């Protein structure tokens, strides 16, 4: 349930309008709150001695002028944001636009600008029918004027923030932080989870089954494993999920199988189908590789002939190394869920460390196979991860990377000196990896 709510939260917070709407409504409430407080509990105090003490007509004119100015500033902020999005999409990849829009600081700045517009609009409503004998709300007027004054400095901060956001290293850092957060949330520390008795997923569970098909097209964003476990336990059956979070499905594609032949309980089949949340795009709710793919895309685009920015790719490799080192120190969720009697009930397709390592290195290695600096950094990355291997599967994942680098060296167009140097490092790396498995 928590993951499902988290998925909904990520979908809403990923929109550029979400936080600005919240801040604008807050400004609206604050403006009217200050006004009613001034007219009520604070009515005994005369604020004109310390705050705004002009006339009603002057207040109206200044408020209208500020409203027009704040609208212009809000429009300018949107224009600057569009320019920044265009630069980010062209240099770092269009998929990073979602990461850019999800940035809380960008949303906060835009919210401040639009909030000032709402505050000025609310003040103009308050002053609309005011006459000369109207008791001027000096505190409310001063409050709104202060918000507009703060916006001048907020605009400078907004331009500075967007300028930093367009730097490749800043975007790489932000995506890397999202990846580390996903690994931390979707994995657990070694030994902090109670081990279930090892039982095999019996082959009999996969025979005489009824297929569960997808109700629509899209990407699997979330699988409610607790709900599937409860359904399988209550109906004394076994459910095998064929796809995982992040996989694409088409309507009527088989996504799971239940170990009962010709099952006719339509309510149960519908409940199983409802345990899958399918959307138009991938999310990081349960997809641990979501941010990893974004990092890899930055490196691939940087290594393209049109950009040829090896330093950006090297930075990506360094951050990927950090993420994989953190991953190897933790435990991925087990693919099988058990009931209270330790009977395997649900089996879900899950990502392994081998998949993560291969997906992290494969496309970068392929794009930089003609560049010695990239190959050397990849070998250095594997050397860094090597002491952190705790299982044979970790070593096997790194061995697959070294084997592919060796093949690239043999089939590439490196000169003799470069080929000799990298081949020697690769051979030493393979020897060290073999020793780890003994």
Describe this structure in words.
With 438 residues, this protein is of the alpha+beta class. The protein contains 15 helices and ten strands. The strands form three sheets. It has a five-stranded mixed β-sheet with strand order 2-6-4-10-9, with helices on one face. Helix 3 runs antiparallel to helix 4 (96-102) and helix 10 (290-302) runs parallel beside helix 12. The radius of gyration is 29 Å and the shape is flat.
Strand content: 5-15%
- The strand count comes to 10
Give me the oligomer status: single chain
Runs in which pLDDT lies below 50 for 5 or more consecutive residues are none
Instruction: Tell me the span between the first and last alpha carbons.
Output: 44 Å
Main sheet: strands, sense, barrel: 5 strands, mixed
Overall pLDDT level: 85
Based on CA atoms alone, the radius of gyration comes out at: 29 Å
H and E order: HHHHHHHEEEHEEEHEHHEEEHHHH
**Strands of the largest sheet, in order across it?**
2-6-4-10-9
The percent range for helix content is: 55-70%
Shape: flat
**Main structural class:** alpha+beta
> Number of DSSP helices?
15
Chart the SSEs and their pairings:
Layout lengths: L1 H12 L4 H22 L16 H37 L3 H7 L1 H24 L10 H28 L2 H19 L1 E2 L20 E4 L4 E6 L1 H10 L4 E3 L6 E2 L4 E5 L7 H9 L1 E4 L10 H13 L7 H19 L1 E2 L4 E3 L5 E5 L4 H15 L4 H14 L6 H20 L4 H21 L2
Parallel strand pairs: 4-10
Antiparallel strand pairs: 1-8, 2-6, 3-5, 3-7, 4-6, 9-10
Helix pairs in contact: 2-5, 2-6, 3-4, 3-5, 3-6, 5-6, 7-10, 7-11, 10-11, 10-12, 11-12, 11-13, 12-14, 13-14, 13-15, 14-15
Summarize the structure.
The chain is flat. The longest helix is centred in the N-terminal third of the chain and has 37 residues.
């Amino acid at each position: 349930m928590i993951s499902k709510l988290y998925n909904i939260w990520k979908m809403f917070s990923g929109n550029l309008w979400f936080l600005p709407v919240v801040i604008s409504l807050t400004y609206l409430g604050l403006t009217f709150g200050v006004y009613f407080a001034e007219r009520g509990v604070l009515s005994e105090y005369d604020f004109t001695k310390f705050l705004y003490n002009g006339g009603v007509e002057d207040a109206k004119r200044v408020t209208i002028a500020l409203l027009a100015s704040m609208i212009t500033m809000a429009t300018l902020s949107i224009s600057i944001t569009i320019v920044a999005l265009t630069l980010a999409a062209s240099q770092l990849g269009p998929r990073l636009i979602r990461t850019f829009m999800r940035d809380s600081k960008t949303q906060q700045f835009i919210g401040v600008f639009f909030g000032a517009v709402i505050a000025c609009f609310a003040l103009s409503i308050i002053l609309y029918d005011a006459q000369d004998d109207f008791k001027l709300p000096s505190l409310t007027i001063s409050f709104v004027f202060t918000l507009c004054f703060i916006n001048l400095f907020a605009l400078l901060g907004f331009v500075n923030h967007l300028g930093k956001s367009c730097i490749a290293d800043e975007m790489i850092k932000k995506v890397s932080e999202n990846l580390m957060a996903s690994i931390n949330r979707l994995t657990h520390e070694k030994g902090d989870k109670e081990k279930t008795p090892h039982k095999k997923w019996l082959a009999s569970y996969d025979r005489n089954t009824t297929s569960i098909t997808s109700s629509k097209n899209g990407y699997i964003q979330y699988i409610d494993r607790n709900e599937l476990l409860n359904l399988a336990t209550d109906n004394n059956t076994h459910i095998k999920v064929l796809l995982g979070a992040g996989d694409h499905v088409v309507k009527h594609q088989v996504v799971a199988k239940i170990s009962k032949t010709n099952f006719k309980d339509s309510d149960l089949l519908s409940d199983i189908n409802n345990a899958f949340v399918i959307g138009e795009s991938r999310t990081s709710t349960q997809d641990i590789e979501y941010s990893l793919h974004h990092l890899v895309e930055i490196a691939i685009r940087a290594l393209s002939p049109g950009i040829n920015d090896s330093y950006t790719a090297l930075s990506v490799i360094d951050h990927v190394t950090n993420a994989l080192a953190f991953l190897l120190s933790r435990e991925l969720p087990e693919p099988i869920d058990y009931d209270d009697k330790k009977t395997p009930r649900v089996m879900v397709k899950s990502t392994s460390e081998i998949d993560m390592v291969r997906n992290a290195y494969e496309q970068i290695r392929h794009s930089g196979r003609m560049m010695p600096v990239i190959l050397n950094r990849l070998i250095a990355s594997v050397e860094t991860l090597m002491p952190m291997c705790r299982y044979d599967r970790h070593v096997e994942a790194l061995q697959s990377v070294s084997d592919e680098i060796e093949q690239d060296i043999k089939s590439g167009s490196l000169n003799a000196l470069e080929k000799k140097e990298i081949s020697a490092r690769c051979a030493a790396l393979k020897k060290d990896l073999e020793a780890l498995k003994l």
